[in-house]
Design goal:
The chain has 556 residues and is of the alpha+beta class. Helices cover 47% and strands 12% of the residues. It has a five-stranded antiparallel beta sheet. It has a three-stranded antiparallel beta sheet with strand order 4-5-6, with no helix packed on it. The longest helix has 69 residues, at 426-494.
Length: 556
């Protein structure tokens, strides 16, 4: 009885469990299973990330210890001055021409105004120069994992709301400063007047402008500082600059989602060749290698924003269709509009912002008073800019992202389009592009005309050849017809029935010329000979006549 009761209870439990499973939708079961698998993956990823982070911190600690030991050892080394010899300028130039790496390093790392090192193209950055004789160039962005941004950086962007990746490598903008040694003291009119005496051509390889130094500045800060002081609030350039800054944020690399494999995806600025840049997605630990195999771009996450042209504490109140269009068109991952606006700054640009704006509005009445003008180079230097010497420039060179610059007698970076022309302002760049377009149109038109002329000549020559061939064929056909007519006439004359027809032919032709008589005789001879006809011999007419008469007599 007990066994029967146990079987009944077990049967009821089995039915109840089966009914519960059948009542659970298949999609819910799959979702539960996928959730469990995803939790396992996330736990594993978290464990791996913690392990990687622990290893990274340990590696950084070991590197710092080695650097400290090296610094301590170098600080205790005292060179023997009695054994040292000062090289002359000629000796340094000779050593540099022979390719000695040590002299190049010595020249690169020297910023002094000593004449011994002045041939390297550097001037003393501590000296005072007129603000109008100073210029700068944007060389391009690069990634540096050894010099991370500190916590005291003067950030003013929107990156605070993003979950920034810890340990990501920093993004920097490289720029160069120059002075014009031939400056004549004409201020603005020196380079921008109706009859300028100077030229903003510090980007040219044969320029007389002298390099003060090359510097690196936090990437976002560099873009922002230019936007603050150069344009009015409703200008296209200003709207594009602020839209691009809002889209890329001031974070080096921030979290945006997970991949299909459960890996964390981060986004950040990716420096590109020739000083360009765009937003890219990363899955590596340091955000240095863009992952282009994710199947989507940064735009997929829809991190766009509304128009915001003034301070974040104020409502700008702008609701213009053009401004909205510019803003929306800029917020895409290639940042094409933003790159276009900042393209001109890769060429020689005056350090003085004229007129000068502050966040879209004139400083003073018109932004042109001397006390209201801002020195943009000083703005760069005062906002997280640091010297960028040979090793720093070499880093940008290795990444292939900086524009051409001559430093320490060596040409670095990639040569820009129009690098060898004086294209310091927008007008000259536009003219150059227009000239190149006209040149391309002229070359294309000339090529089309050449092809058309060649084809016309070929067709005419072919037609003439066909006409000549047709004339020759016509003459040959006429000759062939004549020969056929003669052959038919000859065949009709030879188509007789023996001696009787030959006699008639002889009688009918007796009153004609000697040529007709001779022809008649030949006809009679042929008709008499029959099947045993022999062609006439090559003897004279009289001989042929006698031979023919003898044959006729014999046959008769």
């Amino acid at each position: 009885m007990k066994n029967l009761l146990s079987i009944v209870v077990l049967w009821f439990l089995t039915v109840a469990v089966g009914a519960g499973i059948m009542q659970t939708p298949a999609n819910d079961i799959d979702a539960m299973f996928e959730k469990d698998v995803l939790d396992i993956r996330r736990n594993k990823i978290t464990f791996d990330q913690r392990k990687l982070e622990k290893d990274r911190k340990a590696r950084i600690e070991r590197q710092n210890q080695r650097r400290e030991k090296a610094r301590a050892k170098l600080s205790n080394i005292t060179p023997d001055v009695s054994k040292m010899k000062r090289l002359s300028k000629e000796e340094l130039q000779k050593a540099e021409s022979e390719g000695h790496s040590w002299i190049r390093r010595a020249a690169w790392n020297s910023n002094s105004g000593d004449d011994t090192y002045s041939y390297a193209g550097m001037v003393d950055p501590s000296a005072e120069y007129d603000k109008w004789q100073q210029a700068y160039r944007m060389l391009g962005g690069f990634i540096d994992c050894d010099h991370n941004k500190g916590d005291n950086d003067q950030k003013s962007g929107d990156g605070e709301d993003q979950e920034e990746k810890d340990g990501a490598c920093s993004r920097w903008m490289m720029w160069a400063a120059y002075i014009d040694p031939n400056y004549q003291g004409n201020g603005y009119d020196e380079y921008h007047g109706d009859n300028p005496t100077g030229t903003l051509d510090c980007h040219h390889p044969d320029t007389e402008w002298q390099l003060i130094g090359v510097y690196r500045e936090e990437f976002y800060q560099y873009i922002e500082q230019i936007s603050k002081h150069l344009w009015a609030i409703d200008e296209y350039d200003y709207v594009v600059a602020l839209a691009g800054l809002a889209y890329m944020t001031d974070a080096d690399c921030f979290f945006v989602g997970y991949s299909n494999d459960g890996d964390s995806i981060y986004a950040g600025v990716a420096p590109k060749p020739y000083g360009k840049f765009e937003m890219a997605l990363y899955t590596d630990d340091y955000c240095i290698e863009p992952n282009e195999n994710l199947g989507h771009t940064f735009d997929y996450y829809g991190l766009t924003s509304n128009v915001q042209l003034e301070s974040q504490d104020n409502d700008d109140g702008y609701d213009d269709d053009s401004i909205n269009s510019w803003w929306e068109g800029t917020q895409e991952y290639t940042l094409e509009n933003l790159n276009g606006v900042y393209e001109n700054f890769k060429y020689c640009t005056s350090c003085v912002d004229y007129p000068t704006y502050q966040d879209g509005y004139f400083i003073g009445d018109y932004g042109t008073d001397d006390d209201d003008l801002i020195n943009q180079c000083w703005k760069f230097y005062s906002h997280d800019s640091f010297p960028c010497e040979a090793d720093c420039i070499a880093l940008g060179q290795a990444q292939g992202t900086i524009a051409s610059v001559k430093y320490g007698g060596v040409q670095w970076g990639e040569v820009l389009s129009g690098y060898y022309a004086n294209e310091g302002d927008e007008g000259s760049v536009t003219d150059s592009r227009w000239t190149r377009m006209l040149s391309n149109i002229f070359v294309s038109f000339s090529f089309v005309v050449f092809i058309a002329t060649f084809l016309a000549f070929a067709v005419a020559r072919r037609s003439r050849h066909r006409e000549r061939a047709s004339g020759r064929s016509r003459r040959l056909l006429d000759e062939d017809k004549s020969q056929r007519r003669r052959s038919r006439s000859k065949a009709q004359a030879e188509d007789g029935d023996g001696i009787f027809r030959s006699s008639k032919s002889g009688k009918s032709r007796s009153g004609k010329s000697s040529r007709s008589k001779s022809s008649s005789r030949r006809s009679k001879s042929k008709s008499r000979t029959g099947d045993t006809y022999e062609p006439p011999s090559t003897k004279s007419k009289s001989g042929r006549s006698k031979s023919s008469s003898r044959r006729r007599a014999d046959e008769f």
